[in-house]
Amino acid sequence: MVFGKNGDTILKIAAENGIEIPNLCHSDDLKPFGACGICLVEVAGTKKLLRACSTKAEEGMIVSTNSERVEKARRIALELIMSDHEGDCVAPCSLGCPAHTDVQGYLKQISFGNYSEAVRIIKEKIPVPASVGRICPHPCEAKCRRNLAGEPLSVAYLKAFAADMDLASENPFVPEILPETGKKAAIIGGGPAGIAAAYRLRLSGHSVTVFDAMPEMGGMLRYGIPEYRLPKAVLKKEISAIEALGVEFRNNVKIGKNMTFDEIRSDFDAVLIAVGAWKSAKIGCPGEELDGVYSGIGFLREINSGRTVDIGKNVAVVGGGNTAMDSCRTAIRCGAEKVYVIYRRTREEAPAEDIEISEAIEEGVDFRFLTNPAEIIGENGKVKAVRLQIMELGEPDSSGRRKPVPVEGKFEILEVDSVISAIGQVCDAAGFNGIELTKKGTVLMNGQNGTTNLKGVFAAGDATNKGASIAIEAIAEGNKAAAAMDAYLSGMPLVFPEPVYSEREVSEKDYAHIQKTEREKMPVKPAGTRKKSFDEVINGFSEEQAIAEAKRCLECGCHDYHDCKLIRYANENRIDMRKIKGIKHNSFTERKLVSIERDMGKCMLCGLCVRVCEEKIGKGLLGFNGRGFRTAIKPEFADSIEIVDCRSCLECAKICPTGALKIIE
Question: What is the dihedral of CA 18, 24, 27, 32, to 10 degrees?
C-alpha cells in the first residue's frame, strides 16, 4: 500500500514511493502530455490500460505496473518507437569488436592526450592492450564508418600506442578492486582467455589462481606470436601488472601430470578451463611422419622459447592464416634462404591479414597459391621434397568461399629441407575427467555464459566449441565466462541476454559532406633490415601522429547512450527489433540552433523539447511541423537575436530522453 496527495497522478505517487513506471515524455516541470504510451498501468475494475502520467490517483485504487497485459502493451509501444528510430546506439567499430570495447570512447581520450583514461576504458574489456594492439587483426576496422569517407581508423595501433604511453608513465593506470569476497577461482590456462578472466574476477574481489603448463604466462601471445610482432618484454610488463593486483600465477603445472582436475575442483569454488589449442592439425597426406615435418605452433613455440630448430635452407609452410605468416617470416629470420607458402586457395581468400602477406613477400617469401600438398617425399627418413597438387576454385563451400578442387593430372615438385604445417590447431582435453566434449574434441560450453556440464566449471577460448580463433575472440569469451563465474560465486542468476541496440543503415552518400582522409601510416623497418633480426618491425606512432589519427574518428555512437531512457527500457523489456518493419521518417541532422545539434533520426516526437522551450523558458523556438507520419520538430525562429539565448539555456537538450539533441562542445 502506498500513500499520496489527493489529485496527484499515479506516476507521481509511484515515484514518491520508489516505484519506477517507465516513461519517456514526462517531466515534473511540464504538464502531462501522454505521447509515448510507455507509462501504461492496469487499474482493477477498469477495462482499458491507463496512462500513469495523466491519470489521477483515487483512494483505494489497485494499480498494477507490470502485469502481463501491461508488459505486452509496453513492449509493443517500445517496438513501434524503435522501428522508426534511426541511430547508432554504439559505434559500429565497438559492435565489430568481439569484446565490444568502447573504441569511440578511448579514441576520444587519445585525441585529448589523456592516455591513462584511454587505457582505463580499454581495460574494461582488454587487460593487455599493448600486446593485443600489436597483433589483433582488428575486425573493428572493417566496420569503421571512415571506410565510407577515406580509410578506416588505425584502431589497433592506437590501442597499443595509448597502452605504451601509459606503461612508460610515472603513474600507470591501476584499476580499483572491489572488497574481498572470500571466494576462490581457479583458471586453467594463462593465455588470452585465462588472463582476461583472471583480471575480471580479481577486480570483482575474488581470490584468483592461474595454472599454466608453460614456464611463463601468456599462452599463444607468449609462445605463438613471434618477437618481431609482439616483444615479450611488453607482454611480460602487462602480465606483471595483473599479478600485482593479487592474481597468483603458477607455471609448469599440467593437468593430469602435476595436478589432477579433481584436485583443483575440490580446492576452488569455481574453475575455468582455458587451455587453448596447442595441437596442430594434420595435413592429411603421405610423408607427414618424416623427420623435418613440423607443426606451425610447435615451431613457433620452440623459437619463442629461445631454442633452435633445424629447418635447413629450403622451407615449405603449408597454410594461409596468420600462423602460416608467422611461421614463414620466422623461418626467414632463422636463416632459411628459400621459403615457400603453399595455400590451396587464392590470396584474396587467405584468412591472414593482407599486410602480413605483403610484408612476407617483401622479405622474400615465395607464395604458391592454388596448390596443396599431395605428398611429402623423403629420403632416408628425412624430408627431401613436397609434391604439390595444382588446384582451381570450384563451387562455394559451406562457408561461402569457392571450394578448391584438384586439377586432374597437374602437379609440381618443390625440393625442400623441411615442411611446416600451419593449417589449424586443435585442443588437447586430456586430463579433464568428466567434462563433456564436442565431436571435434573441444570442451562443450554454453555460449551464453560459458558453463559446462559440470557444476562450477566454466570454459572459454580456443579450447571450446568451434575451436581456435583470434586472441580478441578468446578475450571476449574470457570476459563472458568471468561475468558468469562472478554471478555463480555471488549466488546470482547466470542469465546474460544479448543487449538490444539500434543500428543505422548508411551508405557512402550519407558521408558525402565529410572530407575524405587517409589514415596515418605506421612507420615500418625496411624489409632488408627487419628480416635479419627479431626486432619489432613497427617503429610506432609518434604522439603527433596518434592524436591526429584519433581525431579522424567520426564519433558514430550516440553521445547519450549510457543515459538514454529509450534503450534502457528496450533492454529491460527485451523487445524484438525485427518484429515491426516499415518506412522510417526522413532523418536529418541540423545545427541551426547555435549550440545544439539535432538529429531527427533519433527523435521520437515526445514533445519535451517543444514544451520546455515554451512552457518553462517562454521562448517557443521549437514547434511541431507537419501532420501525421510527416510530423517533425523544427525551429520556429521569430528573431535571430532570440537564438543567442540557446547558447546559455540548453534545457531542450538536457530534457531529451533519446540523445536526439546534442550540446555542441
Answer: -110
How is residue 537 written as a grid cell?
618491425
Residues sharing a CB contact under 8 Å with residue 494, sequence separation 6 or more, in sequence order? 449, 451, 484, 487, 488
Instruction: Report residue 437: phi and psi, to 5°.
Output: -115, 160
pLDDT given for residue 381 in this prediction: 96
pLDDT surpasses 90 at 395: no
d(CA 592, CA 262): 68
The CA dihedral of 363, 368, 369, 373, to the nearest 10 degrees, is: -130
DSSP reduced 3-state for 526: coil
pLDDT digits (tens, 9 = 90+) for 128-158: 999 999 999 999 999 999 999 999 999 999 9
Percent above pLDDT 90 for the chain: 76
Longest dimension (CA), the chain: 100
pLDDT at 504 over 60: yes
Average pLDDT of the chain is: 93
What is the per-residue burial (b if ≥16 Cβ within 10 Å, else e) of 57-77?
Answer: beeebebebeeeebbebbbbb
Set out the domains of the chain in order of their start, with CATH numbers: 10-83 (3.10.20.740), 92-174+500-550 (1.10.1060.10), 184-278+426-490 (3.50.50.60), 282-296+306-422 (3.50.50.60), 587-663 (3.30.70.20)
Q: Please, are residues 632 and 585 in contact by the beta-carbon 8 Å criterion?
A: yes
Q: Read off the pLDDT of each residue in 58-78 and give the average, rounded to a whole number.
A: 93
* pTM (predicted TM-score): 0.92
The phi, psi pair for 316, rounded to 5°, reads -115, 130
Report how far residue 177's alpha carbon sits from residue 210's, in angstroms, rounded to the nearest whole number.
18
More confident site: 402 or 68: 68
Helix, strand, or coil (residue 21): coil
Q: How confident is the model at residue 665 (pLDDT cuts 50, 70, 90)?
A: low
Query: What whole-number distance in Å separates Cα of residue 378 and Cα of residue 374?
Result: 13
For 185, 234, 548, the CA distances from 540, given in Å and listed in that order, are 37, 13, 14
**Cβ neighbours of residue 68 closer than 8 Å, sequence gap 6 or more:** none
Closest alpha carbon to 217 in 114, 96, 131, 308: 131
CB 1 within 8 Å of CB 583: no
pLDDT value of position 542: 97
Grid coordinates standing for 129? 592492450
**Residue 595 grid coordinates:** 549550440
CB atoms within 10 A of CB 397: 10
Q: Cell 538536457 sits at which residue?
A: 654
d(CA 404, CA 410): 14
Pairing, β 382-396 against β 371-379: antiparallel
DSSP 8-class letter at 563: G
Of 36-40, 351-355, 565-569, 660-664, least confident by mean pLDDT is 660-664
> What's the CA gap between 418 and 314, in Å, rounded?
7
Give me the mean pLDDT over the 312-322 stretch: 97
CB distance 420 to 303 below 8 Å:
no
CA distance 563 to 654: 11
pLDDT digits (tens, 9 = 90+) for 155-206: 999 999 999 999 999 999 999 999 999 999 999 999 999 999 999 999 999 9
- If you ran DSSP here, which 8-state letter would residue 396 be given? E
The residue type of 140 is: C
Q: Give the integer Cα–Cα distance in Å for 320 and 136.
A: 17
pLDDT at 639: 56
The H or E element spanning position 211 is: strand 207-211
Secondary element (H or E) of residue 280: strand 279-280
Residues whose CB is less than 8 angstroms from the CB of residue 522 and which lie 6 or more positions away in sequence, other chains included: 154, 157, 538, 539, 540, 541
